[in-house]
């Protein structure tokens, strides 16, 4: 039996929904404001996973222009029944308010690669929708309602409605299945049937360090449901030193070999030297965001239990399957030779189209057209990929001829519109092209190089940029010939690009590194990027 190392999906990959079709296994994860929406990974051994589908890839399925930070896709649910894949998702339109406002949809496809159907509206009164396919062929829609009645109490209700696929309609009758434990923040519900019971699995405690998986069971689908003897089936809250924290939001599955596993959300905090673990109620800073782990499950007294204890484990025993050969990418690099955007890359809120850029107008280059700045929730020309390692180097080279200070292009380390750094080239009147850095820290701007910018010689056509990220800090460098590099003498805190640092609740993504071009003058500009590489450090 081989061993599985957690997390199985590194970097920002939260809210896993685990699904099986025969001997093929899939996990769907949340993408929030990043486009295309939902990422689906495939495995045949539960250990090695590869990205196979980004289904919400057109505006008719997902229109997020103007969506707030950490809006967009929350907690998709992927299932397989009747020869189809079924994908439920929420597009959250309001975040910073007493209650969230989202739109729920259902799409289907005969294959995980698609084609995916146009979305069916499933109502706007809640989020974290799930679809349960019962043994008798009936289907049920489970979700967490959220509206004005719920704003004064932390949202503890799970509701069930029958779904009629022939009519593409929900029954108007709603049945309350559960109103939460003392942990509250009940969400992420899934239904399962095993033996003589229906099992309701929910996330509770909020999606930070008190996060947990809670399970209930009932002889009938509409209850009453009784709580698991241990109440919390999984949590790491009781173990502050555990390397995997925030563990919750589980999704259960029986393998084709008759074994049981659960995918769950987890994070790996970086602890700051000299700062107590419980300072400010936290246990560190998770710049890689919320990731996906897996746990082995056993059954006792008709209840599911996590092998080895309820806390998340770094190493888990694999199933009785043949371990697949791992495909190891020592260094990821996109030379922009394809006519379509690399699936590791995403854009913010809107698809990569002729408004944002082109991969064909200049062969072997990514051309980005200048649009909104990094603070915008509308039309940003940003193409980025996740941080998946605590230490890595990202690098690019570009050709760019700005006409004034409102046109810029370069490399960014980005969390959301209010938290980022940006190393870029622009043009100063009477000076010429300059290399600068801007930082936005909890929406407070700073311009550390604007008094003493780096001058870009007029005979230099190409500028190389890189960022070296370490567990707690990162810094930018530049080159005018691609061989001789000059570090910029500024250090930024890696841990600030994390849910834990961002002020207040309601931010759920992770750090990205990417390419950006902006022009808020309206005069028009573009930057051509020759390549974009991501090299993990040797030791992780």
Highlighted features:
2 domains, 9-stranded antiparallel sheet, 540 residues, Tachylectin-2, Chain A, mainly beta, Jelly Rolls
Write a structural description:
With 540 residues, this protein is mostly beta strands. It folds into two domains: 14-235, 5 Propeller (Tachylectin-2, Chain A); 332-536, Jelly Rolls. The strands form nine sheets. Strands 25, 27, 28, 30, 36, 37, 38, 39 and 41 form a nine-stranded antiparallel sheet that branches. Strands 29, 31, 32, 33, 34, 35 and 40 form a seven-stranded antiparallel sheet that branches. Strand 20 and strand 21 (260-267) form a beta hairpin. The mean pLDDT is 94. Keywords: Glycosidase, Hydrolase. Residues 333-535 form the Beta-xylosidase C-terminal Concanavalin A-like domain. This is Glycoside hydrolase family 43 protein. GO terms for molecular function: hydrolase activity.
The count of DSSP E runs of length 2 or more, i.e. the number of strands, is 41
What is the general shape?
Answer: globular
Tell me the span between the first and last alpha carbons: 25 Å
Task: Indicate the mean pLDDT.
Answer: 94
What CATH architecture of the largest domain would you give?
Answer: 5 Propeller
Radius of gyration: 24 Å
CATH homologous superfamily grouping of the largest domain: Glycosyl hydrolase domain, family 43
CATH class of the largest domain: Mainly Beta
CATH topology of the largest domain: Tachylectin-2, Chain A
Biggest sheet architecture: 9 strands, antiparallel
Number of domains: 2
The helix content is under 10%
Structural class: mainly beta
**Number of separate helices:** 0
């Amino acid at each position: 039996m081989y061993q599985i190392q957690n997390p199985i999906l590194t970097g920002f990959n939260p809210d896993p929904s685990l699904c099986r079709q025969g001997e093929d296994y899939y996990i769907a994860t949340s993408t929030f404001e990043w486009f295309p929406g939902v990422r689906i990974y495939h495995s045949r051994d539960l250990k090695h996973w590869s990205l196979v589908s980004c289904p919400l890839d057109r505006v008719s399925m997902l229109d997020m222009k103007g969506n707030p930070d950490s809006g967009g896709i929350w907690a998709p649910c992927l299932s397989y029944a009747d020869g189809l894949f079924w994908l439920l998702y929420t597009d959250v339109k309001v975040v910073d308010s007493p209650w969230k406002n989202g739109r729920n949809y259902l799409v289907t496809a005969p294959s995980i690669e698609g084609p995916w159907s146009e979305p069916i509206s499933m109502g706007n009164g809640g989020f974290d929708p799930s679809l349960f396919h019962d043994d008798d062929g009936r289907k049920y829609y489970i979700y967490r309602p959220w509206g004005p009645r719920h704003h004064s109490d932390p949202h503890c209700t799970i509701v069930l409605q029958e779904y009629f696929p022939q009519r593409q309609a929900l029954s108007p009758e709603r049945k309350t299945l559960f109103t939460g434990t003392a942990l509250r923040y009940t969400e992420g519900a899934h239904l399962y049937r095993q033996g003589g019971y229906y099992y309701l699995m929910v996330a509770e405690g909020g999606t930070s360090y008190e996060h947990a998986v809670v399970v209930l069971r009932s002889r009938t689908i509409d209850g009453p449901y009784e709580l698991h003897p241990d109440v919390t089936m999984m949590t790491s809250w009781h173990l502050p030193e555990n390397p995997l924290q925030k563990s919750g939001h589980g999704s259960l599955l029986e393998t084709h070999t008759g074994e049981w596993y659960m995918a769950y959300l987890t994070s790996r905090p970086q602890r700051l030297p000299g700062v107590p673990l419980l300072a400010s109620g936290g246990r560190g800073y998770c710049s890689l965001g919320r990731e996906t782990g897996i746990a082995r499950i056993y059954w006792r007294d008709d209840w599911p239990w996590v092998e080895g204890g309820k806390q998340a484990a770094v190493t888990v025993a694999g199933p009785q399957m043949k371990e697949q050969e791992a495909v190891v990418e020592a260094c990821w690099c996109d030379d922009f030779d394809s006519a379509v955007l690399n699936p590791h890359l995403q854009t913010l809120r809107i698809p990569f189209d002729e408004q944002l850029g082109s991969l064909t107008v200049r062969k072997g280059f990514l051309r980005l057209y200048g649009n909104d700045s990094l603070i915008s929730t509308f039309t940003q020309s940003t193409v980025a990929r996740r941080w998946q390692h605590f230490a890595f180097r990202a690098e690019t080279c570009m050709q760019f001829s700005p006409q004034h200070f409102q046109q810029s292009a370069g490399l960014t380390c980005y969390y959301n519109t209010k938290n980022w750094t940006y190393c870029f080239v622009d043009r100063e009147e009477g000076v010429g092209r300059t290399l600068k850095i801007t930082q936005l820290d909890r929406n407070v701007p700073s311009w550390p190089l604007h008094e003493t910018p780096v001058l870009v010689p007029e005979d230099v056509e190409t500028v190389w940029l890189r960022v070296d990220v370490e567990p707690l800090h990162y810094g930018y460098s530049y080159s005018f010939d691609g061989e001789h590099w000059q570090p910029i003498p500024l250090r930024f805190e890696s841990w600030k690009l994390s849910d834990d640092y961002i002020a207040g609740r309601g931010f759920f993504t992770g750090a990205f590194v990417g390419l950006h071009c902006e022009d808020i003058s309206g005069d028009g500009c573009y930057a051509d990027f020759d390549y974009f590489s991501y090299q993990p450090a040797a030791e992780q």
